[in-house]
Amino acid sequence: MPDDSSLLRAPRHTAAAVPPKLLLVAQSYWPEPAGSAPMMTDLATAFAAAGCDTTVLTARPNYPGSRVYDGYEGGEQDRTVVDGVRIERLTTIPPAGGGLKARLLHEGVLHAGFASALARGRVGKHAAVLSLCPSILSVAMADRFTAPGGRHVAIVHDIQSGLAGALGMGGKAAVRAIRAMERAALNRADAIVVLSEPMRAVLRNLGVTRPITVIPPHVDADAVHPLPRPDQPPTALYSGAFARKQGLEQVLVMARHLAGLMPDARVLLRGQGGLEEELKAQAQAMALTNVQFSPLAPKERLNEALAEGDVHLVPQRPEGAAFAMPGKAVTILAAGRPFVSTCLPGSALAVLEAEIGAFLCTPPEDPMAMAQGVARLLADPARATAMGRRGRAWVEGNATRSVALDRYATLLTGD
Q1: Tens digit of pLDDT for each residue in 265-302?
Q2: Has residue 182 been placed in a domain?
Q3: Residues 268 and 404 both lie in one domain
Q4: 45: left (phi over 0), alpha (psi -120 to 50) or beta
Q5: Is 212 in the same domain as 169?
Q6: What positions does the domain Glycosyl transferase family occupy (predicted)?
Q7: pLDDT, tens digit, for every residue of 303-328?
Q8: Which of 377, 321, 374 lies closest to 347, judged by CA?
């Protein structure tokens, strides 16, 4: 266990000058409440608040559901300004069911719209461009939006070829095609950002030769901060998308084990997505009386909602852990709460656990081990509180919006 005082020795950061104008190309953005959207929204608004003329090119919001949000379907809000950020939205066909064909249709339609926006002059070329993967098509399109002599920084949240192969999405030929597209698109960027060292190693093995910087997910640590525990039963909370890569089926089995270990505890699953009805049906078939489902909390209630979890849950399917880093982990740490994750030795979360001692890692596909970890923390509030303090200290030194803003600004200006 690391000494608490060591966590307060944050690296020194010198504020970098932001570029005068910035274009962010990403398929997900506010008001989408899960996935990469919250972090990218916070980054864009941070640039705007620092005096940068910031534009976001994105889709009509739909994630993590399977349809465009109410009020956006007809293009009523395709051109808006929110928190100083100009948002340009394009039509898309949300992927129903999460299969590869549905995802390709979704991304293909959206990025054809991006190309049309450039051709028509709706959004012009910029000297500073940030793109986000997923989707790799956003990275490829961002290159076309980069002015001669400008800088394009690609942020890789998910390595799509790795996730597609690990999760059985598409055949080997499809995975090879995505891998080739990733290699070509990323090698045209001026710099690449990944969320963990394992992700950097995967990209190098993929044949990516451009400079790669590790910048962990960040959070607005002023908006997300520790709150007192509400008066409620002991609660283990999952909050986020109900998607295949999370491995949420093991959480239901964990809940059954937890009922035997701690009968008064509840498991709250807060979210939405393609697996929602399937998970609810499984919970009903398993007669899990300690499991509750609820919708994702709106942004203005996020901090309060995070406080409802005495212990949070960050499940992952092990085969995809090297290709993605759960941003929700950093948000939970900012809220001063511990979590229990499923991950393999050497993965990004396993390395972070050893560094800061603010959460527990349990073996993937071992719901009993996960239940035992949850029960230990629920039964020992003093230990959970100490872990929460260590996590908060790490966030303040390494993953605030000001730290992230400085590092991204440096990459974009080439300083």
Answers
A1: 999 999 988 788 999 999 999 999 999 999 999 888 99
A2: yes
A3: no
A4: alpha
A5: yes
A6: 227-394
A7: 999 999 999 999 987 765 555 678 89
A8: 321
How many distinct structural domains can be found in the chain? Answer: 2
Ramachandran angles phi, psi of 226, nearest 5°? -65, 135
Q: Is residue 353 part of a domain?
A: yes
Contact, 186 vs 375, CB < 8 A? no
Q: What is the mean pLDDT of residues 341-357?
A: 89
CATH number at 41 reads 3.40.50.2000
Amino acid code (one letter) for 318: P
Q: What is the pLDDT of residue 266?
A: 97
What was the pLDDT predicted at 10? 37
Does residue 227 lie within any of the structural domains? no
The residue range of the domain holding 164 is 8-218+400-413
Residues 6+ apart with CB under 8 A from 387: 338, 357, 358, 359, 377
Cα–Cα distance for residue pair 250/364, rounded to 1 Å: 9
Instruction: Summarize pLDDT for 397-415 with one digit per residue, the tens.
Output: 999 999 999 999 999 998 7
Phi, psi of 68 (to 5 degrees): -70, 140
On whether both 126 and 259 belong to a single domain, the answer is no
pLDDT higher than 90, residue 222: yes
The answer to whether residues 192 and 299 belong to one domain is no
pLDDT confidence of residue 356: 95
Residue 287's contacts (CB-CB under 8 Å, 6 or more residues apart) are none
